[in-house]
Write a structure and sequence with these properties.
Two copies of one chain form a homodimer. By secondary structure, chain A is an alpha/beta fold. Chain A folds into three domains: 248 residues, Carbamate kinase (3-Layer(aba) Sandwich), CATH 3.40.1160.10; 80 residues, 2-Layer Sandwich (VC0802-like); 83 residues, 2-Layer Sandwich (Alpha-Beta Plaits), CATH 3.30.70.260. Chain A is built from 13 helices and 21 strands. In chain A, the strands form five sheets. An eight-stranded mixed sheet of chain A has the order 3-6-2-1-9-13-14-12, with helices on both faces. Chain A is globular and about 70 Å long. At the A-B interface, helix 1, helix 2, helix 3, helix 4 and strand 3 of A face helix 1, helix 2, helix 3, helix 4 and strand 3 of B.
Amino acid sequence: MALIVCKFGGTSVATPDRIRAAAARIAAIHAEGHAIAVVISAMGHTTDELLGLAAAVAPASANRCRRELDLILATGEQLSAGLLALAIAEAGVPAVAFTGPQAEIMTDRSHNNARIRDVRARRVRRALATGHVPVVAGFQGLSSSRDITTLGRGGSDTTAVALAVALGADRCDIYTDVDGIYTADPRLVPGARRHPRLHHREALMLAHAGAAVLHPRAAALAAIHELPLRILSSPAFGPESGTLVEGAVPVEGPHLLGVAAAADTTRLIVELPAHGRAPTAAVLHALGRAGIPVESLDDRSIESGVRRIAVALRAEHAPMAERVLREALRDETRVRIEAARTKVTVVGTGLASYGAALASALQRLARDGIEPDDLNVSELGVTMYLAPEHAEHAVRTLHDALFAAGEIDRAQRRAAGDPGAAARIDARGRRPA
Amino acid sequence: MALIVCKFGGTSVATPDRIRAAAARIAAIHAEGHAIAVVISAMGHTTDELLGLAAAVAPASANRCRRELDLILATGEQLSAGLLALAIAEAGVPAVAFTGPQAEIMTDRSHNNARIRDVRARRVRRALATGHVPVVAGFQGLSSSRDITTLGRGGSDTTAVALAVALGADRCDIYTDVDGIYTADPRLVPGARRHPRLHHREALMLAHAGAAVLHPRAAALAAIHELPLRILSSPAFGPESGTLVEGAVPVEGPHLLGVAAAADTTRLIVELPAHGRAPTAAVLHALGRAGIPVESLDDRSIESGVRRIAVALRAEHAPMAERVLREALRDETRVRIEAARTKVTVVGTGLASYGAALASALQRLARDGIEPDDLNVSELGVTMYLAPEHAEHAVRTLHDALFAAGEIDRAQRRAAGDPGAAARIDARGRRPA
């Protein structure tokens, strides 16, 4: 008998029928003799609808009054937690719903983007001890000033993993609308293949690249605590084969994991005299103080005496980041927002071995008029920034070139015994005859 | 400078436009130098929609799991509190939203129908002290077991009055979709007239009769504490003339207040041997233990050796009440649910003086084939139970007969000096020439 934390995403509970399907799945796991705690997202697009409502009522305040916005957003998960608990009870298993504050998901005071500081979960433990299924509203917590906070992007996944760690759960199962982690988004790339198994570090790299099924915050938390994760498709969406993520240490040798795109990235370009004192530190410090998460930062000299710092962050944070940086940096600094960019990443170790295949893909993209703004290739992966309208084509082209016709799998299996084999794959992904 | 608690009902905040109109009204009161705390209902028909959603997900559990249902229902007011706070801030006045638990509206543990035990409101006081407008989610509180409760019908009005009492407010303003308390529902009876002023006990009698603008729980609480109330139309619905309710002691002498209908009443008929030991007490005790509110109870012998106890309660409580009474009473007792009835009440003291006018109204109803099931006339008013489809016609007929052509007003004014004058009004509501 295991203790399992199950997390259901928004699409998994978007309608009464799907809520009942999730409850039936939970009742089935319960019938197998396992103890289950559930973490739940808001139904469907509720969070976006609530944001839209707040903007319709008070366009300026909706951005400024972050404490009140959290009060509004938190209703989404509170509602779905209550509904799912009712559905589980209806399926014959005693269930009890908790808000994030009731579950003592304690956070810092960064409204809209809070970090979990502690998970006490005393009432959740009591519910489990008395044979109930606790259903916890994800994405929300309680700050030291007793205010309701929300966790920002990936919040419900993070709640689930943090709760699983706090409860000492055997596993955290993430139910979503895709049946696992793929080499690319299967809705975008028909030839994408599911990873039946990944190591934590691999899953984390894919999550960072924007493989949307698992949020990097949750993946990182699971990796640190070596908590086994399963990514599964929701009962309403078909059979669950899934991806099991466990084991902290990735396999050695060349290992291609996938191609992913992360939309809605914007870059701020800061140009300043090269003689500045630790400008990168000043940038990170200023953004950190304002609670703006940075996706990546690139600092280089672009001409004699001029440094360019490119900061990639979510588009929604760009205007505030620009204001913060203008205030924090000196007058002689220019700060500008670049157009929105989509980051496309090829995730995997030992990529240098696939240089020829990558070169072919880049040539094909160039032929189609697609040139990445910034391209970085290293032993840890390939990252490029593209105009959003070119991202899908780039993902397909890269996936075709690198994962063509199943050859790469065989090559990778072979590579375990023969590290050089993968290097002999030609530009079309086929091994020489 | 006064401290005013303003309560806005569901129709007053049903759309973003109306929320902004409410915020503009609050900002205007604030600009006059008053301190304001706001209590808010859920937007429009949110509560009914949430109940419908719960029933769609889990029809049986939605009735049984009352704690989870409260978690679901409480999202409605939490959302509108957050939105209104944003709108007030947008109007330039600092505002802060609180859930019922954050405002420390402490209740008993009767989920779905909790009673307020205490209002601590420390954060509300702090907000007022720092020049903020606190916006409190009505209809909800926190039980001794730290669970979210809801207060049942009239909950938001009750929150507003209880908060006003706790804060020592000068007045509680109830904004609704009617601009005051009328002699009958003005949507039903075109000739209905607004009371510019009422005493607490009069308002309470009207509220008990089903004059929907003010809930009896709130009216009673205001009466006990002699808290002045104003019933006003919401800014979105037109000019505010309103009704001011103050003064605990009603004027003496004959005083007609209004005619009102309370739909959705069901009566349970309990028939049992006359030699039973205090069956009325047993009935009240059993229903009280089950948390079922009783509207009225009538106990009489109907034939030799048989007593009939008629219990009027809200239709939604009837099936559970029937079960509870069958279990609590002995086998020789018959319990049955009568068809749904609407209670029509003529509210006022000294009604015996209007006997002739009342008789005429009853004759007219009989001519139209309308016979009340039960009719009670006393010095405190007239109560009758009718088939729901006859209620509107009965309200109009009674109002016409009793409040005809403005004569009654003059008669009442005269009655202050000449208690006999009102008695001389004839059956058509006109004084003899």
